[in-house]
Amino acid sequence: MNIEEKIGIALAKALEELYGEKIEAEKINLQPTRKDFEGNYTFVTFPYTRIAKQKPEAIGEALGKAILEKEDLVSAYNVVKGFLNISISQSYWIELLLDIQTDASFGKLKANDQKVMVEFSSPNTNKPLHLGHLRNIFLGYSVSQIVEAAGYEVMKTNLVNDRGIHICKSMLAYKKFGNNDQPTKERKGDKLVGDYYVKFDKEYKAELEQIKAEIAVKQPSLTGKELEKSADLQSSLLNEAKALLQKWEAGDPETVALWEKLNNWVYDGFDVTYKRLGVSFDKIYKESDTYLLGKDIIEEGLQNGVFYKREDESVWINMEQEGLDEKLVLRADGTSVYITQDIGTAELKFSDFPMQKSVYVVGNEQDYHFTVLKVIMQRLGRDYADGIYHLSYGMVDLPSGKMKSREGTVVDADDLIDEMEETAQNRTEELGKIDGFSKEEAQKLYQQLAMGALKYYLLKVDPKKRMLFNPEESIDFQGNTGVYIQYTHAKICAILRKADKDGIDYKNASLKGLSDMAKTEEELIFLLNKYPEKISEAAESYSPATIANYAYDLAKLYSKFYAELPIFVEPDANKLAFRVVLSAAVASTIKKALGLLGIEAPERM
RNA sequence: GGUUCCGUAGCUCAACUGGAUAGAGCAACUGCCUUCUAAGCAGUAGGUUCCAGGUUCGAGUCCUGGCGGAAUCACCA
């Protein structure tokens, strides 16, 4: 049982004894005491004035007195207005610290026998990964780490969109202009295929302009949307791409061979990037395997009245009771739409991995799609439907505006990482921090710092918010950054190395007699103690930002301690050992928290 | 136009889910390296939490109505 539970029970008991009203201990809401007041936990008494028929201050006094007597971990209390501030005795803080120190898996919650699937990345195979994908990938990876730490069994999946008109556009451009172009080390396969996608768009736009000019002469009455539509229909490039898609669907060997060749190039390119990003997947789904799924479920839904058929044979669902419109789920000619295959894929996922929760990390432009998907699965009576969660995140904008792959105005993932590593190297060399590093070690450090900065930058923000990314300014290495947290960790590692060298046996030190703990030290243990709670909070809301902010708070508080209370000049051996133990606990907690964000914690930097 | 999301210091973000005097970082300014790593610490300055009502002991947080921005409302994926 943790401190808060103990106090909660004590307070509930006191409330019952004093005022004769039974209140569940879980309902007792404690919060950290604000800095300007004495105490560790604060209990707000306003809500209890009705049952107590007393003033808030009087309730606070009465409760404070009661728990001070009954619960020996409470060492003092004070009441300000309706706020009861409770102080915890130092011996309990020390006991807590020792528990944390000895528990190698501190923070990890008990296995709860539930499964979660997290789908993320889900790229198209017609272009390289860019900054927008990075937000997705980091979010997905971090959420799976967090959920795992919260006791779930996790499967990370990647649903690759490897078919469709967009790939055919790349294929067509390659056919027309490729000249047997091959990927090289300098130009990975995903880059190559992406170049042809841009090439297609360029040629296509030029063709459209020409067609529009012709229409303007022949049919000057056509304007706006009608003009666009008419031009589209006349575009030979677009029609050729469509024809290619039909050939692919018909299984034409030459087309399929080209498709496989280009896709494999892209996969090879992606693998390199994924590796640099430090992410992996447990299972890959490909849309070329799943795009025909879902029709049998539509049939099932028709049988039991979830869907209905219109005169033209198309199939629909009416979601007015959920405040949504009608939605088509199968075309009149019996072919699938996007939602059809997602229904089928949801079912496939569940049969592969019978999960209670299914997280889709997908941009917020698909909010509507996923609310519809969830409603449909619920109407179909699927057990897992309530566990469907769309982790919707906002777009990453550039100062120049939106990123558009078609127009080549994106921040390429590989280029960005290169730049970050270069910045890390320059900065590190300027500061002269690599004495004693081998070349390989230095290189590894640059990678760790670059990824740390990038991941933290993208994860510390609430996913829902759209964010601005300024590549000119690059990413900071000072202040509220990943590097700052890594740096704090490295400083502690230096302390631990010194402690070992000096032969300080802090691991077996008895800290029992310690009494005059500094405020900062107490606050540090308080914050360490919060870590498991933060994990469950982050898991519940699928929010890496919670962990990112926690890691920063912990590093910040430790830095204060570090400057305030030098360790090795401390004459009292017990106190010295205590500070080393405290430092060790902070370091391992920082490392774990960073791990949940997918960030490595170097021991020297 | 309907729906959903967002709006907090000049900028980028927090705020324990309704609690006390709204906190950090960046940028600016002032101190602190003969000490365990200064990628650091301490401090100064910066706020009508978009606006107007409401709910209550208490609202950045909940409700209503505006304003501003974004997404979506395809037999595209």
Task: Produce the secondary structure layout.
Elements: H1 3-19, E1 30-32, E2 41-44, H2 49-52, H3 56-70, E3 74-80, E4 83-88, H4 90-102, E5 115-119, H5 131-149, E6 153-160, H6 165-177, H7 189-218, H8 224-234, H9 236-249, H10 253-277, E7 283-286, H11 287-290, H12 295-303, E8 308-309, E9 315-318, E10 326-330, H13 338-352, E11 357-363, H14 367-379, E12 388-393, E13 396-397, H15 413-430, H16 439-459, E14 467-468, H17 482-501, H18 519-529, H19 531-540, H20 544-564, H21 573-596
Helix pairs in contact: 1-3, 4-18, 4-21, 5-19, 6-7, 6-9, 7-8, 7-10, 12-13, 15-16, 17-20, 17-21, 18-20, 18-21, 19-20, 20-21
The chain binds one RNA strand of 77 nucleotides through helix 14, strand 14, helix 17, helix 19 and helix 20.
Structure characterization notes:
The chain is an alpha/beta fold. Among the domains are: 3-88, 2-Layer Sandwich (Gyrase A, domain 2), CATH 3.30.1360; 164-285, no CATH class; 414-596, Isoleucyl-tRNA Synthetase, Domain 1 (Orthogonal Bundle). It is built from 21 helices and 14 strands. The longest helix is centred in the middle third of the chain and has 30 residues, at 189-218. The protein is globular. 38% of the residues are buried. The mean pLDDT is 92. The chain binds one RNA strand of 77 nucleotides through α14, β14, α17, α19 and α20.
